[in-house]
């Protein structure tokens, strides 16, 4: 008997998305022997160049070569009893040899690693579609199917339609979705078995948008990872053999992109041959070699995964769960404080960048002054058409920006509305005018204003007046919300 192990995703091509994938052979774009000769005789660089066109329709070389291998088995089978077993996403065991048994290699090479990272408080961003199917195969079910398929392909060869029977261990009819799995993991029963070795509060955001995923990965993985790695390296407290957080997050990000095709698409994977095989088995054999994934309870698989990850990967002995719950309650408050501080830090960084950009506009370097630009873009609309600035003094403005408009301030430029002479001003309006000699503030004495009306201008005149005195945008929009686009108006600011 020859039992070939493939994967349920060997023929989940782009053309079959949302369609059935049955336990049968599908045509391949190239014959197996031709493909083998091509790989063995072509230069590696040239082979790399033609690979995208060669595997067109398949998501990667792994599934493509699995499809080619299945066709090779079919053409070379001859009279030898041959069968093909195709597990889906292999998880830890459901019952044997122990509920949840799993090894590190399986964790690192499958989406189970995402659940482990979330469970110990290391991963905080998931890249998936919650309503997508999660086609799984517990490892003990895969092993049982391999043994049972070998027996069935010999014992019942005449009853099998195909000369090379195919058995898919995993089905879309079980209605396993990421949403159901994540909701099950949040139930009180599973929350109670949280590991006491958790490093941080267990929480995770999820998204199906690649740009948002990239942004969240930087915010919640890379930036904190660089910060923590720097502290650990400075203090010299990194455990021997433990990789850096940044390297872990980099591998996680790449793994998410590898699984993207399978996490965001659905196929109606059928397992009819496997179910028929189970029906041909005696009740005792069905109990011993159970491999029908349809019978798996979703709550049970979530529980076995949680227990298995704690017992065989985290290795906490399944002890001190109550301490783990208390620790998680404390970490929740720590998490809230960290989020607030982190949010303030990000706000401060962006505010500093914004202020630096505004300060660059106030550079001391001489720039050409165009009176027409000043007249048409800055002065008329916002400042001398029915928009009084209700103030006689703004000298108490906070921060590094103070508008000194209560006295005469020299300004090199022609009048934009009229040209005042001496120390007088145009009494027809209560507005600001730029004359050939001075900037006047004809605001009267009955309009006091304090610093909160301006707020922290951050290096630019944004005129953040009170709600009752808003300055309209048309005149400011083209000058980037600031009256200082022309360097000659810098005289209006006193920057420390």
Automatic annotation (TrEMBL):
Q: Name one GO molecular function term.
A: alcohol-forming long-chain fatty acyl-CoA reductase activity
Transmembrane annotation, as ranges: 330-350
Enzyme Commission designation: 1.2.1.84
Describe the function of this protein.
Catalyzes the reduction of fatty acyl-CoA to fatty alcohols.
Describe the reaction catalysed, as an equation.
a long-chain fatty acyl-CoA + 2 NADPH + 2 H(+) = a long-chain primary fatty alcohol + 2 NADP(+) + CoA
What is the protein's species of origin?
Answer: Spodoptera frugiperda (Fall armyworm)
Q: Which family does it belong to?
A: Belongs to the fatty acyl-CoA reductase family.
Q: Where is the Fatty acyl-CoA reductase C-terminal domain?
A: 220-315
Keywords, in A-Z order: Lipid biosynthesis, Lipid metabolism, Membrane, NADP, Oxidoreductase, Transmembrane, Transmembrane helix
Q: Name one GO cellular component term.
A: peroxisome
Q: Which residues form the Thioester reductase (TE) domain?
A: 2-146
- Per its UniProt entry, what is the enzyme's top EC class, as one word? oxidoreductase
Which GO BP terms, alphabetically? long-chain fatty-acyl-CoA metabolic process
Q: Name one Pfam family in it.
A: Sterile
Name of protein: Fatty acyl-CoA reductase
Gene3D superfamilies, from UniProt? NAD(P)-binding Rossmann-like Domain
Q: Which InterPro entries match?
A: FAR, FAR_C, FAR_NAD-bd, NAD(P)-bd_dom_sf
